[in-house]
Amino acid sequence: MRGGWLYILASQRNGTLYTGVTSDLAARIWQHRNNPEGFVKRHGVRRPVHAEEYPTIDEAIAREKAVKKWNRGWKLALIERDNPAWEDLFESIVG
Questions:
Q1: What residue ranges define each of the domains in the chain, with the CATH number in brackets?
Q2: pTM above 0.70, yes or no
Q3: What is the DSSP secondary structure assignment for residue 9, as one 8-state letter?
Q4: How confident is the model at residue 27, as a pLDDT?
C-alpha cells in the first residue's frame, strides 16, 4: 500500500491555515501553488509550513481527520514546534 502525507499550508505566519492529505506531496503542493482552487485560491493559502509522512494513506487520512478537529492554537503550536520560523517548505518538498 502506498504511503501518505498530512500537510498544512498557510497564507502567512499566523495566517489562514489549510490542512490536507495526499499520496504525492510534491505534486499536490505544486498544484496548490500553480493551479489553486476553492479555499486555497480564495484565501491565498499556498505556503507549505508543515508536513508529516505516514506509511499508508489510511494513516495519513486518519491523522488529517484528527488535526482538522483541533483548535487553531494546537495547529499553530504544531507548526511552531517543527518550523518556528514558518519557512516556506516548497523548495525542500519539490526539490
A1: 4-94 (3.40.1440.10)
A2: yes
A3: E
A4: 96
